[in-house]
Amino acid sequence: MNAALMKLVPERWRRGGAVVPVVRLSGVIGAVTPLRPGMTLAGLAKTLERAFAVKNARAVALVINSPGGSPVQSRQIYLRIRQLAQEKKLPVLVFVEDVAASGGYMIACAADEIFCDPSSILGSIGVVGGSFGFTELIRKIGVERRLYTAGEHKATLDPFLPENPDDVARLKALQREIHATFISLVKQSRGARLKGSDDLLFTGEYWAGERSVALGLADAIGDLRSTLRARFGDKVRTPVIAASAGLLSGLLGRKSAGAGTLASLDGIGGLPDDLISALETRAIWAKFGF
Prior knowledge:
This protein has helices at 3-6, 41-52, 71-88, 103-108, 135-140, 165-190, 198-201, 209-215, 224-232, 247-252, 272-286; strands at 22-26, 31-33, 36-37, 60-66, 92-101, 113-116, 121-123, 206-208, 220-221.
């Protein structure tokens, strides 16, 4: 087949050279709003399966840019990647762009090797939760709070009631359980490569690329193109496996799973829930300077 005809053939069907499919995992993890979903296993499952099913693949590369989000969705995505890697007997290589923090780093731990840029941010191995207190505000404007529940703890941490120390203690206990699960996952995945103490690595702190490599949170400084060429040869092919956008998704204005970027306040239609979600998403990214 001549060169002109070869260009018409989909890259994944061409002969010669290694093949390493690439999946981009970008954005906040978990549901943001019904019409603006973040990364979830349901949204990514088919894309991941397609990547691991690419014929003659030598490895699967994941490009991660995420400040974190839902611990449940993060772990489920991590588990699915590991299951596919074991089923297909393919190594997983992660390339961190701006940030792989909190749940984003949990997903990165699904890799056999993690590469990052010197300016990438990695870590934030911890659990955070927050709310607001409006008791003084409603008192000043003359609003009376009326709340009826069945269940002693059903109104736990209600923002319109005074903070209850017992409620806070229960929340912190829950956070410690989730944190312990996160720590166990990182230790299991990174093993002896971790160089720092628990008191350093698992406080929720985060670091830039070089320091992350020194601590064992990443394996090396490297970008996708250079690393894959050095490992698989100059003719390595890297087809990007993107989520299919169906008709309904297009009508609703939904982005493909894993294709999210920094949330914008444009086009949110003035809906309070969308506005709050957009601000929360922005705040998550802003924590890391983005």
